[in-house]
Amino acid sequence: MKKRFKWEPFALMVLLLLLGAWLVLAPGKIKGREGSREVDLRLGSSRGIVEVYRPAATSDPELRVLLRNGFVGPTLTPDEFRRLYGNEVYETATGAAANWAFRLFNITSWASLVWVLIGFAGQFAFTGRMLLQWFVSERKRESVIPEAFWWLSLLGGTALFAYFVWRQDIVAVLGQSSGVVIYARNIRLIYKQRRRERNAENMSSPTA
User: Which of 15, 62, 5, 14 is nearest to 37 (CA)?
Assistant: First the structure.
């Protein structure tokens, strides 16, 4: 009998894609002016950013508070910003904009560095799976895909999916949402095959 095609993995793939798209495109995402730096901000229960913008390289920064609830604050000079929000908030905002590590990874806070590390971990897992597959194949002198390949793929894909959602990169989310389901499906098929083999062995073994 011809086995029917499993539609569930495809449906799960579509659902994961829609979830990623919603997380990336959901209302409340805010961005500052082109060329500005943004620093995460929380005022009470409201979340937003401090926009740090320099009209020229040698000029003082212009600062503005933007909240997810739609609030757009006035453009403030450094002195005005200090009077309203305090010197500590000002130093945090301008320090984040000037930090070389933040500029390198295109982030605005040390908390964002955690997401960058998650992204690196996912990429390392992806690199590791290919090196592992290559090593095993070279040892056996034939193309082999070990089980660990799929586990590293699943871990790496999940980490990169989360990272790209945080980055709001819909193209990368699309790529990872399909891959995660495929990796998980291959792992499930491996374990189903092993269970069938164990059942077959138990049925064929002589009873005492």
Answer: 62
Q: How far apart are CA 67 and CA 62, in angstroms?
A: 17
CB-based contact 97:62 (threshold 8 Å): no
Looking at the DSSP assignment, which residues form a beta bridge with residue 65?
A: 50
Residue 21 included in any domain: no
What distance in Å separates the CA atoms of residue 99 and residue 108, rounded to the nearest whole number?
Answer: 9
SS3 assignment, position 72: strand
Q: Cβ-count burial of 165 within 10 angstroms (0-12 exposed, 13-18 middle, 19+ buried)?
A: buried
Beta carbons of 37 and 190 less than 8 angstroms apart: no
DSSP calls for 120-133: HHHHHHHHHHHHHH
Query: Which residues make beta-bridge pairs with 53?
Result: 62
Does residue 120 share a domain with residue 104? no
Q: Which domain holds residue 129?
A: 111-199
Q: Which two tokens stand for residue 30?
A: 């805010």
pTM score above 0.70: no
What are the tokens at 29?
């995402």
Q: What is the pLDDT of residues 44-100, one digit of tens each?
A: 667 778 888 888 777 788 999 988 778 888 999 999 999 988 887 787 777 765 667
Euclidean distance between CA atoms 176 and 159, whole angstroms: 9
Q: Please give the tally of structural domains in the chain.
A: 2
Distances (CA, A) of 184 to 21, 44, 147, 188: 20, 40, 11, 6
